[in-house]
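Board notes (copied after class):
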Amino acid sequence: MAGKYLSLTSTNITRFFWLFIVLLVMGLGLYGYNYTNAYLNDKMRTVQNTAELLQKRIDKFRYMTYQIYDNYSGQPMTPDAVNAQEIRLRQDMYLVSKPHKKTDALIFGTHDSSTLDLTLKISSFLDDQWGSNTLPYSLYYLNGQDNSMLVVTTAPLQQQDSRLKENAVTSTLQARRAEMLQQANTLDERESYSGLRKPRQGSDYSFSLRTTFNNPGHLATVIAFDLPITDLIPYNMARDNFQLNGNTTAVNEGDQEDDSAAASSIVMQGWSLVFDVPLSNSPLSLTYHVPLFSLVVDLSRNNFWLILINLFLMGLAMASIYFIRHQYIRPSENMAAQLQMQQALNQEIISGLPLGLLVYNFSNHSVVLSNKIADQLLPHLSLNKIANMAEQHHGTIQATVNNEVYEIRMIRSQISPETYLFMLHDQDKEVMVNRTLQQAKREFEKNLQARKLMLHNLGIELNQPLQELNGLAVALVEEQSPEERQTLEGKLLNESRNALTLVDNITLLTRLETQDWQPAGEKYVLSAMIDELLLEALPRLNQKGLGLLNHFNIAPEATFIGDVQAVKKILSLLLDYAIVTTSLGKVTLTSEQDEDRPDLLIFHINDTGSGISKEELSNLNYPFLSQTLVDRFNHGSGLTFFLCNQLCKKLGGQLEIRSKLDIGTRYTVRVKQRQEPQELEAEHEKLLNDVTVLLDITSEEVRGIITRTMNAYGAVCIVADDRQVAREYDVLLTDNPQNSDKFTLLLTDDESGFQQLEKHYIRVNYNISSALIDATLLLIEQQFSVSDDSVSSEEPGEDSLDHYEKQLKSSDYYQLFVETVPEDLEKLYNENQRRDFTSMSQTAHRLKGVFAMLNLTPGKQMCESLEQYIADGDALQITETINHIDSFVSRLLQQGS
C-alpha cells in the first residue's frame, strides 16, 4: 500500500513539473512575441520619422532649385561687383576664387563671363543657406546655354593636395556630369533621384536630387543637389542597412499626402526583415534591412537575464523529474523489463538455430521452450521412448521422423531432474549441404581450369599474329627485290589488320561485359549491308576456291533501324569462321524475316566444311576455352562464338550453332531490328519494270537467287527450257560461258561486282544484288542507245520541240507520261534537297527509261548527264540539270495540252 502511494505521488509530482515547464515555455514565447512586436513597431516608427525628415529636406531643396533657376539667370554683373578670379586646375576645369570661403565653386567645361557671374551668384546664395551646416552639401548646375557644369560645394576643393584625391574628385565630377547629360536627354522625366552614395574618403551617406528645365532652342538645364542624410538617421541604426529605392506609384503636386504608416510594410526577404516606408511627396521609398541573425542577437541581448532565468528554471525542473523518476520508481519495473528483454533475446537465439531445440518437463508434461523446427516435429515424436533409448545409448540416438533421419541428443537438467533438453539434427539436410559444398568446389575448380585454359589459348592467339608480323617485318627489312617487297608489304598490311581486328574484338567484349556498350539506332538498308559484307569476304573465298550462295528473302528496298555495325560484325565473324573450317564446297548465307514477328531478322550461314568439335563449341559460353581450327591462310578465333552470342543477346536475339563432323555447320543468328514502314510503290515505279530476262542457268539454287532478285525489282523472268519460240526478251542471264546473245550477263560467284568483257557482254557476281541490277541496267541502256541510233539514222532532223510534242501526243503512253513524269520530277527535287543520291539515281534512271521508250532524245540525254553528275556528287550541276528536265517536260505538257 505504501509503495502504491509513493508511486502515485511521484507520478503526480512528475506531471506537475511537466506542467510547470510548459507554462514557462508558453510565458517565454508570449513575452518574446510581444517584445518582438514592440521592437518591430519601434523600428518602423523610427524609419517613418526618418522618411518624414527626408521628405522635408527634399521639399526644401526642391524649393531652392526653382528659386535658383528663376532668380539667377546668368546676367552679367557690373565690373565693380565682380570680385573673383578663375584659377585653371587642368584642361576645362577652373576653380573660382572668391572672398567667402564657406563654399567652393568649380566650373567644368568651356564657358563665358556670364557663367562666372552665374557661379558667383549661386555661390553667394548658397553661402547664406549653408552657412550654419557642418555636413557636406553640393550643387551641380548643367548650364544649357554653353553646356558647362558648375559645382558649388561645402567640401574644400583647394585642399585636395594629393593626386589620388584630385583624381577621385575629377572622376566624381565626370560621373555626375554624365548623369546630368543623361537626365537632360530624357524628355519624359522632369525630376529624378539617385540611390544612397558613400564617398571613398568619408563616412557620410547622401543622394542626388536632379531637376530638368527645358529651354526652347537650347539644351536642357539640369540642377542637382547632393543631400546628406547622415544627420537624419538615429545612432542606434546601422547606416549601411538603409536604401533609397524608386517608387512606381505616381505622385502629383497638390495631391493630399497619404498616411505613411498605412503604406509602410514589413516583409521578409531571404534572411532579412525589410522595413519599407514610402515618401509622401516623392516617388521614393526608404528601406531598412535588418538581418535575422542581428535581430535575434539584439533581442537576446536586451532580454538576457529573463531568458537566463527561464532556462535555469526549466533545467531545474528537468533535473527534478530525472531525480524523482530514478529515485522513487520501483526497481521491479526495471527488472521486469530486463526479464522481458532477456526472454526475447533467448527466443531470438533459439529461433535462429539451424536445428530443432526442445525443452520438455516430464513432471507436468509441458513444453518449456522450443523453436519452429521442434514445433513441426513434436506431433511425430514419442518423447518417453526417445528419453529411455537415449539414456541407454549415452544420450544420442538416430530416429526416422516423417521419413527423414534425425540425430537426437538428450541432456538432463541439473536443476530440475524432470526437465530434459532435446536437440534434433537433420542428417539428410547435412548430407545435402555437403553435396552442395562439393558441387561448389567442383565448379570453382572448373572455373579455375577454364581461366587457365582461357589465358593459355589467349596467349597463343595473340602470339601467333605478332610472330607473323615480326617475321614479315624482318623479311621486309632483309628483302631487296621491289616485287618481293611489295608482296611482303601486302602480307604485312593484312596481318596487321587481323591483329587490330582481334584487339578490337577483345575491347568490344570488355565493353559488353562492363555494360558500357549500347546498340545504336541508325537507319540502314539491309541489302546494301549484305552486299558490302560479301564483297569483303569474297577475296578469302576466292583464295580457298569456295563457292558462295546468297539467298536474300527480304525486300531489297527494306529499311531497318538498329545497330548495323553490330549485325555486320556478327555475320562477318561467323562467315570468316565458316571459311576457315571449310576446305571444299560452298558457304551459303540466307537472310529472312520471321513471319510472326517482322522485327526479328534471321540469318543462316551453312558451310560444307569439316564441322566443329564439342571442345570448340564450348567457346560459345566461355571464350578461349579450346583452340580453334587453322587452315593454310587463316585461323579461327576462340573469341568469335562468345562475342557473337553476347552481341545477339544485346540485340534481343540469340545464336545457335549446329554442327556435324565431316558434314558441315549451320549457324543461326536471330536479332531484333525495327523495320521502317515503307510506302507501297506501284509496279511502274520499279527499276526493271517492263523488262524481260531469259534465264539459261544450270544450277537450281542460282536460278532461284536470280529469279527472286529480278522479280523484286519488277523484271519478268522466263526460263530457257520453258520459253516459247516467239517470246522476246531483253537480257540473257546464263552461267555457261559458251551461251551468249546480243545482250548477255555471264553469272559467276567470284567476281568483285561486275566487269564488261565485250560491248554487250558483262560478267557479274549473282550474289551481289546491287552489281546484278547495275549490270542489267547498263545492258538496257546500251540496248536503248542502239535503238536511238537506228531511229536517228532513219529519220534525221527530228530534234525540234514540235516534233517531240506530236510524237508524245500520238503515243499510247501519253496518259502514263502525264501521270508519272511530273511525280518523278517532284521526287527528284525532294531527294536533291535531302541529298539522297541513291534514291535520286534510281529516279533519274527511271525517267531516262521513260524518255528512251518514248524516243524523247533531249530528255534521255539530260537524264544521262544527271546520272553522271550524281555519280560525281556535283550538287550545283545536279540542281541545274533537274531544272532543265523540268523545263523540258513543262514545255511538252504545255504544248500538248
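Comment from the instructor: Residues 119 and 252 are 32 Å apart (CA to CA). The chain has a mean pLDDT of 79.
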